[in-house]
Design a protein that fits this description.
heterodimer, A: Rossmann fold, eight-stranded mixed β-sheet, globular, B: 319 residues, mainly alpha, 13 helices
Chain lengths: 694, 319
């Protein structure tokens, strides 16, 4: 770690001020949290969110905190800075030793002493970059106020420093963007601004609380690279709070795994992934899809849900969901965290855990894909008429610019790309929620584009949709039974009350829900259960094609695996076809037979699943794959990283020729002139890049 | 910003145009012949009646009448009062000044007091002062202002003899006395708007306090007051501005009654008499002037939105 501290003086002439003059003692604990307990005291109940958490972070170290949502990861971090609003939050026990001597929990909430630490010594980056910046203040002022407050610089000096900081986090043209407001930046840019703000006063500790969760994978990689870079250059300690195991595998030196408001395992990243010592850690690793997976690997979800923490558990809190529990687990109290190796601690009674991460699918149950094309999309164009810059003038915003796809009966086609590339627009065109402006959509030989609403109805029964947000897409006033049964009534698929009830019951069973729940309202269900309802509703009319628009991206990893397995199981049983839209290439890999990669309204590469992952041809596909971290530190170290330059432009400024060429490292003259066509480079593998494949 | 303002001004002109049509149509809608009302007992004279009709343009088609009326109005000729047979312009001008002075003071009181009380309530949420302010605000909204007026007159004027019971003194005559005469009526005019402003300010501050960017501000180590006045208030004032726009309209509506109670020779009092006398030109002039004031204040509120909220300024204006 010594070389990380010695900053080469020639390298940092431009950003000398930002790269702190830190020559701190090696191995010094920057923050040490001891037995922290936080609870939320509400009117009728108390939630014990943090139950005795201890951790430390050393200078220059990157520490990952992982766990499912509701495990107290964020609350722990917010508690240490006393950022939680009190009431209802109350820190009941614990010490937070910062920088050697001070117990910062003893300070007054919002008092002078804690304020002089916040932003100056400990800085936080939050999850939602768009809402974490004040919409009515310029971004320059928002960073500068921190600099002026803690570093005592005057307005002019502060401005200069802010511009340096913006340059450090790769905001192009910082002088002119200083005076702009948050809504003039993209999500990724806003997060860079948040990082600049956090780094503004050379903090000793930086806390990134789900800082990249809301962003695209490519932006996520860019942001985390920037963070890692800055942190290592300035010897700052960094805590990355995330539910993404891949991120901690790629970036973290040490990892804390949290469950039910406790640290259940901690250790060096390699040890945690190679030799996990807690059943929960193993469960997480088993449920996460990996980019380097064998197609035959089965995801093993952790059944059940994390506890709601309304009472402090008497036994191991993971016991109700644990598949490797021993008799002593239910006989004894909460296991104590014990040393299991060098810097490796775990709180699990079972010392002989089964760590087989790679379980294989039952190979006998293969699915049948016929050669019949159930869906064929040719030259699909979709544009919106929007108001131009001038009064009265209208321009057409081309969202889709000639999309060609086909989907065989019984197969799953994955459609991937960054947000804004037009994936969902394709889906909406197929459903005719949008009327395409050009091209054809053949569903079992019928062109949907020209059909009138009346003629469309019978087709609608055969094409169903699963939405991304399981919370917003179910009517809160209907019972879940009515939601599932509605398509049966609309399409008059059953006769009589009894047949209706039987069919609804059958659907509930298909998606693994208890029919006894059918009179509940959606808000009584968890995210995973709601998504099951969404699937049951889609299945009700016995469709031949289901379009799944990011069906698992709003769910926790363990639940994600449940839903993916469910979708796969249904396909094997019914021979249904899926168009699976997602931005996460590791999820798509698990479920898809073929994958299409989209960029700015065009398909750039389409291939069989294995071909695409083993032999990606288009530079964009390569960059996308490279951006996704694999939850295995050893694999991560050996991986070549292909950085993706800049951000995807808006469709209103689609570059001439190949839309990807401004971000492409292989681009040549012809790329900026001619739109490349999809060319078959091997059987079933089409790519639109004349440079990589002629 | 320029384009944004231009658009708002264009909208205001359209609304104003509609207001003039409707208010001129009064003369047609009112039962009876306007010329007969104008002449009163002299209407028996057929020749005089015909001459008056021509003078008032009543013999021409409606559209022409309206065009001529608008033209005269813009030239400052508001017609003659049916009842007093005096030019409406002269009658209105001095009274207009009085009502505007009252209204302006009431507005300033309601904005400052309303926002300050709202801030106080929000920062002491669910504590003693918040409860007190909430109770007062509810009284302010629900209690009829004539009752509050009588109560205030009894307490402050009759019992403690701190303020005059009624009347109006021009400020250029005796400034101190003028202020003393204005305190009670202005306060009573402002009361409903104070109450709504307080409630709106409190609610929107509490909303904004839950926003992520307030958490960001706290994590920067800013002082409570900096967070409140710099980060929270500017965001919280956006919905308050909407309420302010509506308050201006109700302030002028309220002036009609307050001027009666306190015997203030303002527009409100004059228009009350005009309605009773069916003195149409005065009513028309009043409607047009008050509409103009309300439309202008709405315009100012819209422009203020643009100043406070950069999203409006940049999205809807030139960049």
């Amino acid at each position: 770690m010594a070389e990380k501290m010695n900053i080469n003086p020639e390298e940092n002439t431009g950003n000398q001020k930002i790269q702190a003059e830190t020559t701190r003692k090696e191995e010094k604990k920057i923050i040490e949290v001891q037995n922290l307990k936080t609870e939320f005291r509400m009117k009728r109940r108390t939630v014990y969110a943090v139950n005795g958490v201890s951790y430390y972070v050393k200078a220059g170290e990157i520490v990952g905190v992982v766990g499912e949502s509701g495990c107290g990861k964020s609350v722990t971090q917010m508690s240490s800075l006393q950022l939680l609003l009190s009431p209802p939050a109350k820190i009941t026990e614990g010490r937070v030793i910062f920088d050697g001597d001070k117990d910062i929990l003893s300070y007054d909430n919002d008092g002078e002493e804690i304020r002089s630490l916040r932003g100056a010594e400990i800085a936080m980056i939050f999850q939602e970059p768009m809402t974490s910046l004040n919409p009515v203040l310029t971004i320059g002022e928002q960073i500068a106020e921190s600099v002026r407050l803690h570093m005592g610089l005057d307005k002019k000096e502060a401005r200069k420093r802010v511009i340096d900081l913006l340059r450090l986090v790769n905001i192009p043209d910082p002088e002119s963007r200083y005076g702009q407001y948050p809504h003039e930046f993209s999500g990724g840019m806003c997060q860079r601004i948040m990082i600049a703000m956090a780094m503004a006063c050379n903090p000793k500790l930086l806390i990134a609380d789900e800082a990249t969760t809301a962003l695209d994978v490519t932006t996520q990689a860019q942001i985390l690279e920037t963070l890692q870079d800055v942190v290592k250059k300035t010897n700052t300690a960094l805590i990355i709070v995330t539910h993404n195991l891949g991120i901690v595998a790629r970036y973290a030196d040490r990892i804390y795994v949290m469950y039910a408001g406790r640290v259940i395992e901690s250790g060096r990243a390699e040890d945690i992934f190679k030799n996990p010592q807690h059943a929960y850690t193993i469960g997480l690793l088993n449920s996460v899809p990996r980019l380097d997976d064998d197609k035959t690997r089965t995801l093993v979800p952790i059944e059940g849900m994390p506890p709601n923490l309304q009472k402090v558990s008497e036994h191991c809190p993971f016991l109700p969901r644990c598949t490797q529990a021993l008799p002593e687990c239910s006989a004894n109290g909460v296991p104590v965290i014990e040393e299991r190796g060098c810097e490796h601690f775990a709180a699990c009674y079972n010392r002989n855990l089964n760590k087989a991460v790679h379980a294989s699918k039952d190979v006998l149950e293969t699915k049948t894909v016929s050669e019949e094309h159930i869906l064929e999309i040719k030259g699909l164009h979709m544009g919106f008429r929007v108001k131009g810059k001038n009064y009265g003038g209208k321009t057409t915003l081309k969202i889709l610019d000639g999309v060609d796809l086909y989907l065989r009966k019984g197969e799953t086609l994955g459609l991937v790309g960054e947000s804004g590339c037009g994936k969902t627009t394709v889906a909406k065109c197929i459903l005719r929620l949008y009327t395409p402006t050009g091209g054809s959509i053949l569903f079992k030989g019928t062109d949907l584009t020209g059909l009138r609403e009346k003629d469309l109805r019978p087709c609608r029964k055969n094409i169903q949709f699963i939405f991304q947000d399981p919370f917003g897409s179910l009517d809160p006033r209907q019972t879940i039974g009515d939601i599932v049964g509605e398509p049966l009534k609309v399409h008059k698929l059953v006769s009589g009350k009894e047949a209706y009830n039987n069919r609804v019951k059958e659907l509930f069973e298909m998606v693994g829900l208890d029919y006894a729940m059918s009179s509940r309202a959606p808000h009584e269900l968890s995210g995973g259960q709601r998504q099951r309802i969404g699937i049951a509703r889609a299945l009700a009319s016995e469709p031949e094609l289901i379009i799944c628009d990011e069906p698992v991206s709003a769910l926790d990893v363990s639940v994600q695996a449940q839903i993916l397995n469910l979708l796969e199981g249904i396909q094997r049983k019914t021979g249904i076809s899926y168009l699976f839209i997602a931005h996460d290439l590791s999820v798509v890999r698990h479920i898809s037979d073929r994958i299409a990669v989209m960029y700015l309204g065009r398909i750039v590469e389409i291939a069989d699943c294995d071909q695409l992952y083993n032999n990606p041809v288009h530079p964009y596909t390569k960059a996308l794959l490279s951006a996704i971290p694999i939850p295995d530190p050893e694999v991560e170290k050996a991986r070549e990283r292909i950085p993706l330059l800049g951000e995807m432009p808006s469709v209103s400024r689609r570059p001439e020729g190949c839309s990807f060429h401004p971000r492409c490292t292989f681009a040549c003259d012809t790329c900026s002139r001619k739109v490349p066509e999809l060319v078959e480079c091997e059987s079933g593998h089409l790519v639109a890049c004349p440079v990589m494949y002629k | 910003m320029g384009k944004y303002i231009a658009k708002r001004v264009a909208q205001a002109i359209v609304v104003m145009f509609l207001v003039t049509i409707i208010s001129y149509a009064l003369i047609q809608i009112m039962p009876g012949d306007a010329a007969v009302i104008y002449l009163g007992s002299d209407a028996a004279d057929e020749e005089l009646l015909a001459r008056t009709r021509a003078e008032l343009n009543l013999d021409k088609p409606f559209i022409i009448q309206w065009v001529l009326w608008v033209k005269n109005f813009m030239l400052g000729d508001f017609g003659k009062s049916f009842h007093y047979h005096l030019p409406v312009k002269d009658m209105i001008m001095e009274r207009l000044g009085i009502t505007f002075t009252l209204g302006l003071f009431a507005l300033v009181i309601s904005v400052t007091v309303g926002i300050l009380l709202g801030i106080a309530a929000a920062t002491h949420r669910n504590k003693f002062w918040d409860n007190v302010i909430n109770v007062l605000a509810n009284i302010g909204i629900s209690a009829p202002s004539f009752w509050i007026s009588l109560l205030c007159i009894y307490i402050f004027a009759l019992h403690f003899k701190l303020l005059p019971v009624q009347g109006y003194v021009p400020p250029d005559k005796d400034f101190g006395d003028a202020i003393r005469h204005m305190i009670l009526p202005c306060f009573i005019m402002a009361l409903p708007s104070i109450a709504t402003m307080t409630r709106q300010t409190r609610a929107s501050i509490l909303d904004v306090l839950n926003e992520d960017y307030v958490r960001t501000a706290r994590s920067k180590g800013l002082k409570k007051n900096v967070i409140l006045f710099k980060h929270v208030l500017k965001n919280a004032l956006i919905p308050v501005l909407t309420v302010l726009g509506m308050s201006i309209a109700s302030l002028f509506g309220g002036s009609v009654m307050v001027e009666q109670i306190f015997n203030i020779p303002g527009m409100g009092q004059m228009v009350t008499t005009a309605v009773l006398n069916r003195d149409i030109p005065i009513i028309q002039a009043y409607i047009v002037i008050i509409s103009l004031v309300i439309i202008l204040s709405a315009l100012l509120v819209d422009i203020a939105y643009g100043i406070v909220d950069p999203r409006i300024r940049i999205a809807k204006g030139e960049k």
